[in-house]
Amino acid sequence: MTLNESDDLEKFLRNIDQIDELVKEFNSTDVSCQEKAIVKADQLISSLEQNKSQKTSINKTILNPNAPQNIKNERRQSQENFLRTLEKDAEERNQRRKIKEKTANALREQGNEAFSQGDYETAARFYTEGLEQLRDMQTLYTNRALAFIKLKRYKEAISDCEWALRCNEKCIKAYIHMGKSHLALKDFSQARTCYQKLLEIEPQRETMVRAYLAQVDVEEKEVLQEKAAWEEMQKATEQATAITVLLKKLTRPNQIDLYYCGGLELLSQAIRDTTGQTLLRLNNGFDIIKDNFLSCISLNSKEPCAADLCTSIIKLWRTACSGNEQNQQLLLECSTARQHLLQMLASPVPEIQRESLALLCMCSQTQRGRELLTDKLYSHQMVEELVSSVCRDSSSTSAMTLLQNLAADKKFKILSREHFTDVFALRLEHLLSNTMTSDSKTLASMISLIGSLALDDVINKDLVGREEFWRCSLQSMMQCVGCEYTSVLYALLGLLINLASKTSPVMQDHAVLFSRRCLELLSDSSGGVITRACGLMSALLPKSSDATQEVVQNDGVKKLLRILKAGGEMSSRYSIKALTVCTASTPQACEELVKLDKRLQTLRKLLGGTDELVVGNAALCLGHCLKVEGAASGLLGTDCVPLLLRWAAGDSKRAAVQQNAAITLGKLCKVEPRHKGKLRELHGLEVLHSR
């Protein structure tokens, strides 16, 4: 926007404010105030006419052209005329604005189309033409700012963002684009300020803002590293000189492979710290490796020198990229390097494959590294090779470590949806069905990997609906007997607990058999296995009445009560939930619990705890047991009423806990009226009514 255009906009806004004040004065009950308003209106109209005659010959609406001669006699008529003129002018302005909005939106669409095709100059031109129609259209400013960013016209982008914020001070895109522009100009402080402003406007965008701020930190760190590297180069330090000389020697053509291998090894040794890594980058070390070696090495050659040369290159990359996200990005953005890395993963030479995996594992240790690998290197071929490597060589942990690290990245999960069945699910089912002959460590790791991927809703739904997966999982659980399979059983139960939170016909068909196996596992020697067996039961029983009957009829109440008495945070949560489902479903479960737990001592102990998930289910379970004859009278003289009153009166952050306690307290007093005496003694009714 030009300076003249800015002045016009400011004058227009001032005129609007003046007219608003005049309307207020005309509506005043003070006659003198009204008389002054008429004079001011005449002056304003005159100034607008004068400005109009100086600027353009286009006919515009004239406000109140005939100023009153006799103020007292024509005051009312002037006021009415002025208001009618204002209304007419407002309507005309509204119609003109609608026409301009339509034109501006059409230009915006044309700009968007040009932008999508990568023609940023044309896009910026269309957005500019749109702004000539409508100067207060926020979207046009932010769109043009993004086009300017693509054109590296960062100062112009910042200016557009500032205008967008004048239109809407909470414009998210304006702060994002302005932050990116400041970052490109290496103004890290201003970039941080822009991104932090996003949190003030929309705190729910914390994850996005954290990523933006991390990028600012990375680029600021890069600037500082390059500054330190240039200082070393100017001082001609030993490290700087060695790296420069070695890179020059490596460009010599027609040398034997052993010469290049030695040079690459010496170069790796010369890089001693972050400054050395930066010196390699500043001296175009990555390009030298790409241009002089990657184009000529044979990855399928079994010649010792060829394999050594390839290994030396990977080791240099590892040294240069260790803890250095800038170098990792530079390496992975090179299409030639990416192509060779994928080939190296599938190399028939074990050492090349090991070094390649080690390099990628190193990159995957940070969030930024995982994002780079997913964005730049992900392919069906890569994932297929990694999973095959895991299944082929159980002694190698690098491939599994890399997969598990990548599975923590949201985008990796999304990209894996398409290949989940053939790459992951089928292999897992094969391993599960052959648990006895599979390597237990590999199988446990594979299950954990699938568990991470299944946090994605699409993958989770796919896996939950697989009949073969549930069949193979049950088969594996039956085969897992003995301490050597504890890790497999523990991992598998954890995966099944997460999957069982969703309902599916396939899972319900297998609920009885899984619940039966879980009951057996409640006697396992591993506390972790017992806890997760309870967890799987607590997830399955609410979805299958047949599974609940199976548990109750096979001493499930007794076993769950034993676990509750033993204590433990997660085991208590799982077992009381399972027990509550059982007592809600069958009178037999209630009778057994009342018989086994004298005066429901265990449930009362849980009510005295602080874990609200446990307390809520304990209150519900106790309420179920009151149906048993003598259960309510057996609680006379106990702390049951004060415990329930405490939670029913609102000593809980969860409404469900308060509700369960109140319902059970009401049942208790209804079944055994003598409990009302204790409730009155504690002023229970007053307390409950005050809530």
Automatic annotation (TrEMBL):
Residues 83-110 form a coiled coil. Gene3D superfamilies: Leucine-rich Repeat Variant, Tetratricopeptide repeat domain. GO terms for cellular component: centrosome; cytoplasm. Keywords: Coiled coil, Repeat, TPR repeat. GO terms for biological process: axonemal dynein complex assembly; sperm axoneme assembly. The keyword Cytoplasm does not apply. TPR repeats lie at residues 172-205. InterPro entries: ARM-like (IPR011989), ARM-type_fold (IPR016024), TPR-like_helical_dom_sf (IPR011990), TPR_2 (IPR013105), TPR_rpt (IPR019734), TTC12 (IPR043195). Pfam families: TPR_2, TPR_8. This is Uncharacterized protein.
